[in-house]
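Teaching note: in complex prediction, the entire set of molecules is handled at once rather than each chain in isolation. The prompt given to students was simply: 'Predict the structure of this complex.' The entities are:
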Amino acid sequence: MTSAATSSGALPASVDAMLELLTSRGYLAERSLATVTYLSLRMGRPLFLEGEAGVGKTEIAKVLSAALGRKLIRLQCYEGLDVSSAVYEWNSAAQMIAIRMAEAAGDTDRDQLSSDIFADRYMIKRPLLQALEPDVAGPPVLLIDELDRADEAFEAYLLEILSDFQVTIPEFGTVKAPHPPIVIITSNRTREIHDALKRRCLYHWVDYPAAERELAIVKTRVPGISAKLSQQVVRFVQALRNQDFYKSPGVAETIDWATALSELDARSLTPQVVGDTLGALLKYQDDITRMQGDTLQKVLKDATSEN
Amino acid sequence: MAINHLAPEKTEQFADNIVGFARALRAAGMPVGPGAVIDAMSALQVIDIGNRSDVFTTLEAIFVKRHEHALIFKQAFNLFFRASEEWKHMLDSVPLPDEAKKKPQAGARRVQEAMSQPRMTETPQHQEQDLRLSVSDKEILQKKDFAQMSAAEIAEALRAVERMHLPQAELLTRRQRPDARGLRLDLRRTLRASLRTGGDIIDIHRLGRIEKPAPIVALLDISGSMSEYTRLFLHFLHAITDARKRVSVFLFGTRLTNVSRALRQRDPDEALASCSASVEDWAGGTRISASLHNFNKLWARRVLSQGAIVLLISDGLEREADSRLAFEMDRLHRSCRRLIWLNPLLRFGGFEAKAQGIKMMLPHVDEFRPVHNLSSIQELITTLSQPLPPHHRSLIRSAA
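The expected output is the structure of the full assembly:
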């Protein structure tokens, strides 16, 4: 099972093929994540990924689109996100020019004018509408990132779009996707998403990886890092996650830190090096203060011991 | 056999019973109008009233119009029409509740109270006076401490709390809607309107920001020292959960429990019952600092992200007061829009923050208010419905 699974465009035919597909693109997923991703592709249901920041939720959408050769359309959510920035907007300035031009040319047919200026070319298409349009490479991957930052009103609107993949534009008509896009929704849980939306999706909580997997991820993503250093880095980070920090470091932070250390040509972890680069791992002053002195020494000793 | 086959005096008795039953339902808080009673009478003309479960189904179909009332109806029906084989000997006296039951079901208390009200003997006006307290009683009740109320007064206070309407404290959101006095130009609508005049812009359409009530997060202390107040506060929180969309409620004693979902049930007794079912440490000790730590770690990011107002309801009597407590309070304070500490101990004139825990917590709250009687709850509601001040540390109210 090699060529069929990784050939561009075709959907993987089994969970193993899915795992292989993700791995071939440098995304080392837990089997459970590969399973729900596979199911979401097979069932045509949106995938709802929730988890701490930096565990690879957004990454999977990027990898999927690259592996399947589909277009990636990303909608970054924020408070106050509305139809004009998520779905479509009329290019009013261009429309006004068109009206003036029509006036200058002496066109006075009102119906003709309104059908002219509400044409496709005056429409600015935003991510959700782009995702509904047919694509030669196949339905695109629609990434709705950090949905928890949008407000409930947008969530309700999204529910409607995800149920029938069509948008009605008053001046224009209804746009319906010939094939629904692959939808991946991520959330950092800064608020609870409504049950109604979760019911539509396949839900998966993305957790921090175990030590072995994280080591494999570091080796994949930070080429040229020494085996000894990568092992120490992963041990150190895993130990930090067991501490009671306000914000534990995610996989993204591990990769950043490993990259930083290899840029600094560090061979192994020393208190000096760790102290200088701790900002790549911990992002809260309180957490950094707690990692001084004895605590740091202890964690470091465990991470660098040879066994 | 249908009702019209009974002897005339029996029919009358039956009709009286139906009317009494409807009154009882009304007293238990169900909206039952005279139309429903007439419907019930005519429905009983066509069914066999010898069959108790048929009668139940029939009356339920007529009196219950919302699912959350089904439970109350069932309790009331079973109390009112005791299961007797001979329906014709329906009791005229109101049955007494079975005291042997270990735990009364949700709603039972209200149904029993409703049943124990006088039946139709006096004139309605007279009865109104019996049921309602006189004005001076009300005033006393407003000022009376929850901890010193009799059962009847507590019941009245609960009713008062349920009647309190929470006006909306508005928070500007980033979402826009058409608004003639708005600040932004709505180009799309302006342009569409201009087409009616052949492209000349005459009407300028504008957009303004939508206002939404701020989310409320309540942290309620259920330790032993607070036990006299807990039930009342839960009722209050249930009332505001009912009225607003975004309310989260957490109970803490020795541990922290999220009861937001339990409180969303419409019937207050049922909501409180499922609350108690989910909490394991009623009236135990307090570990404010540990509970706050858990809240900050597990929940703060999930419920405080949208400019929430936090109500911390606690007497602040913490045994393990140390720097952790101050630290967690500080973190909580910095992650919400407004932190209001409600303390029933403030009722004592000359109450000073002597306890170590209170001293630690005080610098980190925006407001410190008493909450021990109806008028203080009313004041709190007024506060919650005022426009929110911007982020700043307002002076701590002295308990004058």
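Point out the following to students. The first strand of chain A starts at residue 47 and ends at 51. The interface with chain B takes residues 78-80, 82, 84, 89-90, 92, 95-96, 99-100, 102-103, 108, 110, 113-114, 117, 148, 151-153, 171, 188-192, 244, 246, 286 of chain A (CB under 8 Å).
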